[in-house]
Structure formats: C-alpha cells, structure tokens
Amino acid sequence: MALPPFLSAVITWLRAGYPEGVPEHDYLPLFALLSRRLPDADVAALADELADVGDPASAQAIRAAIATATRAEPLDADVARVSSRLAAAGWPLARPDHLDHD
C-alpha cells in the first residue's frame, strides 16, 4: 500500500538523514521523536515501511523500539542527536504541524 504524500516525505527525510540505514541504537530515540510529532497510526505505517526494506532482524528491532518508546523515554541527548541528524537532512522538526498531511 502506498503511503500518503506526507508520510512518503518523512521516509525521504529519514533516508536522507540515514543514507546507510538507521542504526539500531537510534531506533528508540527516532520512534520516540516520531511519536511526539505524529499520530500512532502514522508512526506504525512508517515503521512498516522501514521494516519492509530491511532484514527481519531490523524489522523486529524497529517494532521493539516502537513498543519501548511507548513505555519509556529515551535520553534527551539521544533524541537531540537524532533530531540534529534529521534536521541536517532537511526535516523541519521545529514546525511539523505546519506541513500538509494529505
């Protein structure tokens, strides 16, 4: 199933920020960050998209990070590191609610 344009843009930003793929140690802060900015259904769709192109171990790690992100907060330094990396790739972290979600 194709992602809506807004979620496709998020995937593009993620791939620009992590051209070699998201390292496992960044899954938790990444999904915590996404969970602060997007509805749960959108975060799940993004995780599915990332998991579809990765290996089964990565897919499992992504799903585990989402589950953990809903139970525990990552370190602020980790979220800041991920935020900075994505901002360098053009993700407007400070104003995501001003984007078109269609």
Task: Describe what is shown at a glance.
The chain is an all-alpha fold.
Molecular structure report:
The chain is mostly helical and 102 residues long. It has a domain at 23-90. It has five helices and no strands. It has helices at residues 5-17, 24-37, 40-52, 56-69, 76-88. Helix 2 (24-37) packs across helix 5. The longest helix has 14 residues, at 24-37.
Query: How would you spell out the order of helices and strands?
Result: HHHHH
Mean pLDDT: 76
What summary fits the major beta sheet? none
Shape: globular
Number of strands: 0
Share of helix, binned: 55-70%
How many helical stretches? 5
pLDDT < 50 stretches: 94-102
Distance between the termini: 15 Å
Please indicate the percent range of residues in DSSP E strands (runs of 2 or more).
under 5%
Backbone CA Rg: 12 Å
Structural class: mainly alpha
Q: Which properties best describe this structure?
A:
disordered C terminus, 0% strand, mainly alpha, 102 residues, single chain, 5 helices
Topology:
Blueprint: H1 5-17, H2 24-37, H3 40-52, H4 56-69, H5 76-88
Helix pairs in contact: 1-5, 2-4, 2-5, 3-4
